[in-house]
Amino acid sequence: MNKRTIGTTIIEALKFQTAQDLPASQKDNLEYATLYNWSRHCRIQIFHFKQLLKALSLEALIQAVSIVDAKIEFHEHPHPEPILMISSVPDLLRSSLDEIQQWRSLKVYLPSPFARFYLDDSKASRFSGMIRSLDSHPIAAFADPASSEYLKLVQMLVMRSSLYEISHALNIKPLGLAKYLEPFLKNKTIQVLTFQVEKPQDPALPPINIPSGPIIACIDDSKTVQRQVKMTLEHSGYQVLGISDPASSLTTLVRQKPALILMDINMPDIDGYELCRMLRQSRHLRDVPIVMFTGRDGLIDRARSQLSGAVGYLTKPVEVSQLLDTVKKFV
Q: What 3 state SS string does 114-133 have?
């Protein structure tokens, strides 16, 4: 298993990975614990899992130290269990000095791999003309405007995707893609959308489409699940109503009237079975389809969910396409 295969494997598997095996008090707090439980669930060999930990740690460190004049603080935390990797920061970074320098040179145009690109329709022809001149570049497949790779790249630039999202979709290392796009960033053919907090939308850009489709409620006490479901469904046009406190969900659901409810089974105060039965007794919500969205995958759990009134059952982790197909089926 090479480094690229490892990276692709973990990105795919973590799309809807949750901390369902952790106590409620630890959910969303320990990324290491989430990764470790995922590795056991997928039966990944310990050697390969160590490689994953090292790759993820190195990626984060490279991005941190490549920020010019940044103040970096390291805080000590209790040792995770089990301890599978011990390595100092200098040891991790020693072999990546050239990569750090390349990222530093890119920071002038690209502040973060999470920053989003934008290609305006009026600059598409200019982009096409420039890209043809890069036929000697290692990513020469994009030089043909008729190729599927080029069309996918343009589509993701128009959709304001980030560097990480594009590199994953096109199976290219982030640094290689960033270097490839550098000329377009220099002459502003491609814009980099900066992070904004409570600032008006740039009038030079078309407005961002706000989802206006049916409301999908997600009842889950995990913030990770809420975030992943929201990103996936809103990208497809649905409105997402996130509910992390199942005990007080009834009033919210009656007021918002969702078209579908995704519900976890393991939740504090009240479990999914009991909540499902309660919703089925409400005259306002009894006809709303409920799909159990949980880490449990036993025949008894499936039978209990059906007896409680659920119409579907999704097991975490779940593929994006499977989630979307299920939503379309019942909405």
A: CCEEECCHHHHHHHHHHHHC
Report the chain's mean pLDDT, rounded to a whole number.
Answer: 77
CA distance linking residue 20 with residue 295, whole number of Å: 6
Residue 126 CB-half CA count within 13 A: 12
* Co-location of 230 and 326 in the same domain: yes
* The token pair that represents 269 in the structure block: 């105060």
95 and 10 housed in the same domain: yes
Residue 9 lies in a domain: yes
Q: Answer whether residue 208 is part of any domain.
A: no
Percentage of the chain surpassing pLDDT 70?
77
Q: Is this prediction's pTM over 0.70?
A: no
Can you give the pLDDT at residue 11? 45
Largest CA distance in the chain: 66
Instruction: Work out how many domains the chain is built from and give that number.
Output: 3
Report the DSSP pairing between strands 191-193 and 116-118.
Answer: antiparallel
Give me the phi and psi of 210, to 5 degrees please: -90, 130
Do 159 and 230 fall within a single domain?
A: no
More confident residue, 88 or 162: 162
3-class state of residue 242 by DSSP: strand
